[in-house]
Amino acid sequence: MIPGGSDEQSWIQTVKIGKQVNLIKDEYSPLVDVKGLGCWPSEPLYDQIVEGEELKKYNIDLEDYWSKWQDKEEISLEYGKDFDRVVFGISIGAIPFLCPKILEENSNWKRMIESVQTCLTDAFQLWMYPDIAGLGWKYWKNEPPVLGSYIEPFDTWCDMSHLINRESWSDSLSPNHIAYFCGPSPLGITPIDPLVDPNIPKQMEKLKERVIQFLQNNVQSIWPNSVQTSGFNWGLLLNPDKTCQGPMTIESQYLRLNIQPTERYVLSVKGSTKYRLPAGKNGYSNLVITGDWIANSVLNAGCVESTVVSGIEAAKCFY
């Protein structure tokens, strides 16, 4: 977004959009069918993209802010001609990438970016042969657990086994428990220079090490039946690749490092609330901002409640 204005008022003058790929047809159909439910796939549907084979060949991640992939076209939209107002709902971590001109001219935006910090998070998901009772969870007769304030870096565990019926598994490879773990990454808060490539493949290897260490040393308190004398029983994990044994079985599970600017968790560090800008009064007459990072009337914290209320307050700007 590029600002414009006069002595009395500022507004968003230009919005530039990078067109990453060309489509074979006029529209892109992004969902895949899983048991009658439209779902987001783990990668683009390459057969709908002109450059699909190239994306696959070079393993290009179009959601990576540090990707070397070149846009196929730049689309420039002008205020008064192509749009009247702009709703900016992208998370605060992406603002240095998307709004550098605003940060150059607007001290309130610059202070907000410097004060409202974000945190990288670690996450992994396991598909396991035993159910929660078989793993030794004492309270298996109660409702499925959501556990917080456990051992960092994975201090949150959620039983997501209700999704098993929504997934497609063969009879010979079928889970009875799905576990989601997440927590703050030891990598810490937003890097000093968010524009510098953090070397994601290297950081993913470190995440893998953290997951293995956590399972080896820290799950016996919640899953006493999951450990052996040597540590975690890796044979409990669904693993279609029988060549991977022991800790390398983790390759068959899902690990995620939320490191992209839009993925990072928005923090509420001391003294930062006063620097959050509201939905409408953000310094630009035709711009409305929204998300869990703006000032709202309920909770200035990174959560769905804050996001919903911020969305309502953004909508009120159009009344």
From TrEMBL:
Superkingdom, taxonomy of origin: Bacteria
The protein's name in its UniProt record: NAD(P)-binding Rossmann-like domain protein
Organism: Leptospira interrogans str. 2006001854
